[in-house]
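[step 3/7] inverse_fold.run input=structure_tokens len=234
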């Protein structure tokens, strides 16, 4: 499993633009006050603040809520975003960010740390990399390919737009978007022919204790994938 941390490759920070104000909807979800817009300048310094950010509307006309923690330091300073769970099957980053915030004491801090916990609500719910939507007969959307989102796009695009414009915009100087290996193990075997393939799958792999099922696919042509499209820190 490959562990990697990408530094804000996808999230748009829009640091120079000031948000209007923190907007409370009047609701609470599991004891946390619901916000539809954040301005960290409004919040009391030297304290930890917990919210539910109201994201996109669900198909039933309700909302997806994203847990947000703001550790606002007693003294002013840089504002850092810790995002985890943009891919819903990447669980370790969520635990890492929660542990980081459990270790913070805003009274001793300069600057502000903001945690965005599992913004891909459908992905977290189903432990999947993608978010399932019903438009156009159903589609699996990779949330990390939707930044900065579209106001009137599909559910995932709108959710990303709301996070970009109502939560991140004007509140963040630098962001760390945490990723890791997801569910599933990819293992490569090389066999000499179909008989050997059958033997491998049915006589060996299927008999391993704990294997519930196997899938096979046939590559007619294999082109090595390139990973030079922008994950490097510049
Ligand atoms: Zn990821």
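[step 3/7] decode complete -> sequence:
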């Amino acid at each position: 499993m490959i562990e990697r941390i990408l530094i804000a490759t996808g999230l748009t920070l829009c640091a120079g633009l000031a948000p209007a104000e923190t907007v409370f909807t009047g609701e609470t979800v599991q004891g946390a006050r619901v916000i539809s817009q954040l301005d960290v300048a409004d919040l009391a310094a030297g304290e930890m603040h917990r919210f539910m950010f109201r994201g996109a509307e669900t198909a039933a006309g309700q909302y997806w809520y994203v847990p947000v923690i703001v550790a606002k330091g007693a003294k002013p300073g840089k504002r850092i975003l810790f995002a985890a769970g943009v891919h819903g099957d990447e669980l370790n980053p969520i635990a890492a960010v929660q542990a980081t915030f459990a270790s913070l004491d805003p009274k001793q801090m300069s600057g502000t740390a903001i945690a965005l916990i599992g913004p891909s609500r459908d992905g977290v719910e189903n432990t999947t990399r993608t978010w399932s939507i019903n438009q156009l007969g159903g589609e699996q959307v990779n949330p990390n390919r939707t930044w900065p989102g579209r106001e009137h796009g599909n559910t995932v695009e709108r959710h990303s737009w709301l996070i970009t414009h109502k939560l991140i915009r004007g509140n963040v100087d630098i962001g760390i978007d945490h990723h890791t290996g997801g569910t599933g193990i990819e293992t490569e075997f090389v066999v000499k022919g179909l008989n050997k393939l059958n033997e491998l799958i049915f006589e060996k792999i299927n008999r391993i204790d704990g294997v519930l099922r196997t899938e096979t696919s046939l590559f007619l042509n294999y082109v090595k994938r390139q990973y030079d499209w922008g994950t490097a820190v510049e």
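[step 4/7] annotate
Residues 87, 90, 179 surround zinc ion (CB under 6 Å).
DSSP finds four helices and ten strands in the chain.
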